[in-house]
Amino acid sequence: MTQVREYTVDIITAKSNHKPQGSESLDWGIISFLSLVHILAITAFFFTTWNAFFAFLALYVVSGMGITFGFHRLFTHRSFKVPKWIEYIAALAGTFALQGSVLKWVAHHRMHHAFSDHDKDPHNSTRGFWYSHIFWTCYNDPSRDDPKVLKKFARDIAADPVLLFMSSDAFLIGSQVVLGSLLWIFGGFEVMMWGVWVRLAALYHATWFVNSAAHLWGYRTYDVNDSATNNWWVGLLTFGEGWHNNHHAYSDVAPAGHRWWEVDTTWMLIKTLSFFGLATHIKLPPPINAKAKSDKDWDKQKLVVNS
Fold it and tell me: How many contiguous H segments (helices) and E segments (strands) does the chain have?
């Protein structure tokens, strides 16, 4: 049986490079927006009600599942199939997380798997905790952000006219404005502050922890050729995405938790849909004592890059 061993990277000695490299340049629009999100999220704690807190929880689950179920396991890895109407609901839910359009998110994540822990990895963990956690978002890099590059890595998304429309800046921003307006109208200022700003800040950091903490702390079930680890608390915050070593070993399977105690609520949702016949062609991992094909995704992405 594959040995489970502790794996920790020394943060002090790890390379830390937050400065622009190559074609990177600081994106002051993103920097200003992220600063605003955090300022308003902190301000929201002065306007706290139970209704606001419950709105935060509900929308955290909806938009978080939109990322994990929709943007990640469905659109990026195609680890299962659902009817188109569920695809579009998942895309809308993920759009509410405001982590970029579905096209951009999918393209960046496929780049991450193709070039994990190397220069072309959008959130390369070898550049240090803070770069892989947040600073990578603060740079504009044509090598990863050019529309032609994005469509090259996410051709299936670009080929769907509905998903392509939902990937527009107008839809991305407009959907958040509509959501915030509805929360304010029907719930009040406090509900809007918690349902939008606190939720966005919390979900940003939860997602970013997959890129940072889940490449630093945890255990490794599989000897993959990057630093991905299984981290239980990241798994709880991200509906199962913290079982990152498992995911990098078998990225195109639906469950991220490969042991019974590796809680994976996204997988629970997929299984529930499967019970009702709404999720099909579900890809599963081999027995846990099998050798992981750690470069499987690299081979897949080379087809994208070289085509």
Answer: 16, 4
Cα-Cα-Cα-Cα dihedral sign, residues 60, 67, 127, 20: negative
CA-closest candidate to residue 266, choices 247, 281, 248, 290:
247
Characterize 185-216 residue by residue with b for buried, 16 or more Cβ atoms within 10 angstroms of its Cβ, and e for exposed.
Answer: eebeebbbbbbbbbbbbbbbebbbbbbbbbbb
Confidence of residue 209 (pLDDT cuts 50, 70, 90): very high
DSSP secondary structure letters along 44-58 = HTTS--HHHHHHHHH
Give the closest residue to 102 by CA, choosing from 74, 132, 140. Answer: 74
Evaluate whether 66 touches 94 at the Cβ level (below 8 Å): yes
pLDDT at position 141 is: 79
Could you tell me if 113 and 83 are in contact, meaning their C-beta atoms sit under 8 angstroms apart?
A: no
Q: In the Cβ-directed half-sphere of 110, how many Cα atoms lie within 13 Å? A: 30
| Dihedral over Cα of 166, 196, 105, 271: its sign | negative
Burial class (CB in 10 A: 0-12, 13-18, 19+), 151: middle
Q: What is the pLDDT of residue 57?
A: 98
User: Can you give the pTM of this predicted structure?
Assistant: 0.86
Q: 117 in helix, strand or coil?
A: coil
Spans of all domains in the chain? 23-306
Residue carrying structure tokens 């939008």: 196
